[in-house]
Amino acid sequence: KIHTLASAFNHTHRDMAVQKRVLSIFLIQLVLLAVSGLNRVDGAGLRTGYYDESCPDAETRALKTIRKAISKDVTVAAALLRLHFHDCFVRGCEASVLLNATKEGGAEKDGFLNLSLRGFDVIDDVKSAIEKSCPGVVSCADILALAARDAVQLTGGLFWKVETGRRDGRISLSKEIDANLPFSNFNITQLKQNFASKGLTKKDLVVLSGAHTIGSASCLTINTRLYNFTGRSDTDPALDPTFASELKKKCKPGGILPVFELDQGSSTISDAHFYKAVRQNRGLLISDAALLDDHATRAYVKRQSTSAAGATFGRDFGKSMEKMGRIGVLTGSEGEIRQRCALVN
Predict the structure, then answer these.
(1) Which pLDDT band holds residue 310 (cuts at 50, 70, 90)?
(2) From 3, 84, 86, 273, active-site residue
(3) Which residues carry a binding-site annotation?
(4) Residue 88, SS3?
(5) Main site of residence (predicted)?
(6) Where are the beta strands (DSSP E) in the chain?
(7) Residue 86 bears catalytic tag
(8) Helix, strand, or coil here: 105?
(9) Which residue of 56, 200, 261, 262 has the fewest C-beta atoms within 10 A of its own C-beta?
(10) What is the CA radius of gyration of the chain?
(11) Which residues are annotated binding-site positions for heme b?
(12) Please, are residues 217 and 260 in contact by the beta-carbon 8 Å criterion?
């Protein structure tokens, strides 16, 4: 009996020890899962050539469609680049900027900062072209990333490999715009904070600002800078006086139109000329001029403006675009592959 009791006690003791070990391992696994969730790396699951087997002609079809659109209207290039940027900065690069409003409220495209967005029809055309070949395979989020790259390539020759594998989100809210997108009147501190909140550095800030090498802005956007910069009917002293006078001839107080090139004389070519304009205090936006108010961003502006080809701009722009394209992506089983880019399935 004593032997039996001792044996039972030993078995019980061993079982408790095993249970404790199992519990310890389980708790450690929970902690590791929690930490991995908190430290999830943006872009996990993306890779170049994602559609090589499932839809091998996806990028070719996208490029062909975008080339046709730009041949009709070269300004579409800037619109497509801007669409990708505005998408990634709100909820991440998951095509929420393309969704239409629902009964619950306005979508991102209805927010004030996004009212001037265009190029939605081009994205729809690309989606339709790809769907004919590979229905239900390529996401609208990936199409936005490819369209931005192709737009830059077709207007300046700059090229980078686009990582794909994104999936589309199902939520788009206009009320989320103001807290996420940078405003054109942001100072350098606000710009750095905004980009840092997306995991982007000061270098990414000054490099991605180079997207203003193509595109335009309305008289409404710069009106305050020209006529009421500090609320005292004054002009921004950071703006070249001669350039300010030229703008005032066309942009009247309280005016909405006309539209001005962001990179005067080179707004349809993707190059580093934008930095020359900024260095000469002829950047159109307050946020452009702000690049001269930080040592690191000012040094980059100077370096790119002293070379006809922009020194390292092409390579830098590709790297920063890849990095931006990883913000908040949905991959794997997350989200969906939309059948139509403006609607959830």
Answers:
(1) low
(2) 86
(3) 87, 90, 92, 96, 108, 182, 212-213, 263, 271
(4) helix
(5) secreted
(6) 216-218, 259-261
(7) yes
(8) strand
(9) 56
(10) 25
(11) 212
(12) yes
